[in-house]
Amino acid sequence: MSEDKYIAFDVHQATTVVSVMNAAGREVKTAVLPTQAQPLLGFLESLRGRLHLTLEEGTYAAWLYDLLQGRVAELVVCDPRHNALLKEGSKTDHQDAHRLADLLRTGMLRPVYHGNRSLRNLRELAHAYQALVQDTTRVMNRIKAYYRSYGIDCAGRGVYSRKQRESWLGRLPAGASRVRGELLHEQLEQLRSLRRRARRELLGESRKYLVAARLCGLPGFGPLRVALLIAGMQTPHRFRTRGKLWSYSGLGLVQKGSSEYRLVEGRAVRRPGALQLRGLNRSHRPGLKALFKSAALVAIRQPGPFQDYYQSRLQQGVDPAILRVTVARKLAALVLSLWKKGGRYRAEGVKQA
């Protein structure tokens, strides 16, 4: 029977440090290779046995996943935030690789999903659009900050209007100050143009997926939000239950407790109130959380079961912030159900539930 080998790649821009460990936990081989396809593949081909390989999520992770998938028995792209053991003691590239290999051998790594190549185009376009949205917001904030630095009140969105640009620039001192303002406004126009193009490309790509039409029927979910949702989740079958999706999206509740049980007549009985809620989980995908919460804001403003639920609970004295999170969780559960089982959204079904 061939021996299992556990391999870790500590990947950097120029080089990749490799550590190979056997099933007994003994390091049998190390190497420093160029971060290039041929040297890495050649090294793997030189090894014998059943190969298990891990590397941390990062800039090169997607490329290496596509390159190495199918060439090893197991490939794990792990979450570096959860590799707490790597922070202990001295830190070198070789020690990082050695510890990664040991964590892989003992099954202590948390994998990052890297499947479904068919969604690569949609994901790339979604990343491009989201980056342009962030850049646009950054420049808009910079424009307002610049006007305020000259004591010019610029409340509202009029300062971003192309038609009002000249009147706003006229308030700035002539010379370099006005030139800088012109450059900021021109930068905003360029970003808006690129953002519109990215949006068109993203929506065009999302129409290729049949599930997009079904999800667009959900309250708060238009074509753009659905396109970003599909790119972020990729497949619903990653999530066995709705609780898994809630945790992944930052909508899962965190419970903490200690000394939960007491003995009553020789039997272990849970103490009332032993577990306390400590808010939402912090380890999540911020983009998906913002997506579900923004969809919830739209859903509670539109006539329908979500607005009825929100208003009725609001009258009972429930905190509006908690209600918005609850609606976001309901929408996430609906998305998972419709995507997995098919069918269309029916408001009557939500009321009955």
Protein described:
- The structure is a single chain.
- The strands form three sheets. A five-stranded mixed beta sheet has the order 3-2-1-4-5, with helices on both faces. Strands 6-9 form a two-stranded antiparallel ribbon.
- The protein contains 13 helices and nine strands.
- By secondary structure, it is α/β, with parallel strands linked by helices.
- Helix 11 (305-315) packs antiparallel against helix 12 (320-341).
- The protein has helices at residues 37-45, 61-68, 93-105, 120-148, 165-169, 176-206, 210-215, 223-233, 242-248, 286-299, 305-315, 320-341, 347-352, and strands spanning 4-11, 15-22, 27-34, 50-56, 74-78, 253-257, 261-264, 267-270, 275-280.
- The protein has three domains: 4-105, Nucleotidyltransferase, domain 5, CATH 3.30.420; 120-206; 216-250 and 284-352, no CATH class.
Helical residues, percent: 40-55%
Described by strand count, sense and barrel closure, the largest sheet is:
5 strands, mixed
Total beta strands: 9
Q: How many structural domains?
A: 3
Estimate what percentage of residues fall within beta strands: 15-25%
Could you say which structural class the secondary elements and strand pairing correspond to? Answer: alpha/beta
Low confidence ranges: none
Overall pLDDT, averaged?
90
Largest sheet: spatial strand order:
3-2-1-4-5
Question: What is the CA-atom radius of gyration, in angstroms?
Answer: 26 Å
Q: Tell me the series of helices and strands, N- to C-terminal.
A: EEEHEHEHHHHHHHEEEEHHHH
Number of helices: 13
Cα separation of the termini: 54 Å
Shape: globular
